[in-house]
Amino acid sequence: MGAVAAPQPTTVRDPGSNRRTRNKVLTYAGLIALTAVFIAPLLWMLSTSLKSEQAATSLALEWIPGEPTTQGYQTITRPGTDSPVLRWFVNSLLAAAAHALLVVAVAAPAAYALARMHFRGKRTLFALILATLFIPPVILTIPNYITVDRLQWVDTIIALIVPGAAGAFGVFFLRQFFLGLPLEIEEAARVDGANAWQIFFRVVLPLSRPALATLVVLSFLTNWNDFLWPIYVMFSPERYVLPVGLATLQGAYNTNYPVIMAGAVIASVPVLILFVFAQRFIIEGVSRSGLKG
C-alpha cells in the first residue's frame, strides 16, 4: 500500500489584518495629501522667487523655472536700496525674540502662583485672566497706542516688544503644564530647605523646558507675523519689520512678484529653522499641558 500523504495545513486569513492594512494605507495617503496641501504654497513661493518678472506673470503653470535667476534676491539685498529687506529682517528678529523671552518671563511666575500657591480670590483672578482671551485684540489697539505714545515709545522697537507680553494665553498654557508636574518633587525640595523661589527656578523651570520652548515658539511667531500693530507705531522705513516692509514692495499699478516672493522666502527661513529645532519640545509641551485641568 502506498504511503498516505499528510494533510497540508490550511492558512487562515485574519480579516482584521486586512482591515488594519487598508486603514494604514488610507491614513498614509491622507497624510501625504495633507502634506502636499501645506508644502505646495511654499514650493510655489520658492519657485516664483527664482523666476524673472516676465515668467512670474506668465499664464503657463511652471513649477520649475526654465531659466532660474536670483534677480529678485539681488534687488532686495542690494546696498542703498529703498527697500532694506535685510534691515527689516534684523528688526523683526530682534523684536520677536525679545518679545518671546518677555512673554515667558511674565507668564511663568504668574502661572506657577496660580497652579501651586493658595491665596484668596485665586479662582476669580484666574477666571478674569481667561476672560481676556475672548476680547478681540483689535479692540486694544487704540488704548495700547495711547499708552505707548505717552511713554514715548512710538517708532521704537520697544513698542513692538512690550505690548502684549502679559497675555492670558501664556499664563493659561503654563499653568496647565505646572499642574501636571509631580507635586512630590516640590515637596521633597521644600523638605530640604528650599524656599518658593528656589523651587520655582531650580526645580519647576528645568522640568518645564518643553512648555517654555513651546511658548517661546508661539510668541515668536505671533510677533513675527504681526502686521496691524507695527503699522500704527512704526513710521521710519528703516525701522519697519518684515510684514510691513514687504507690503511696501507692492506698487499701486505694478507688482514685482519675484521680489515679493524672495522677501517671503527670507521671512520664512527663521520660522522653519525654529520649528526644526523645537519640534520635539513643542509636541511634548502641548501633549503634557493638557494632562490636568
Q: What is the subunit organization of this protein?
A: single chain
N-C termini distance: 79 Å
Q: Determine and state the CATH class of the largest domain.
A: Mainly Alpha
Element pattern in H and E: HHHHHHHHHHHHHH
The main sheet comes to: none
Gross morphology is globular
Counting structural domains, the number is 2
CA radius of gyration is 27 Å
What name does the CATH topology of the largest domain carry? MetI-like fold
SSE class: mainly alpha
Number of helices: 14
| β-strand number | 0
Helix content: 55-70%
> What is the H level of CATH, i.e. the homologous superfamily of the largest domain?
MetI-like
Strand content: under 5%
Which architecture of the largest domain per CATH?
Orthogonal Bundle
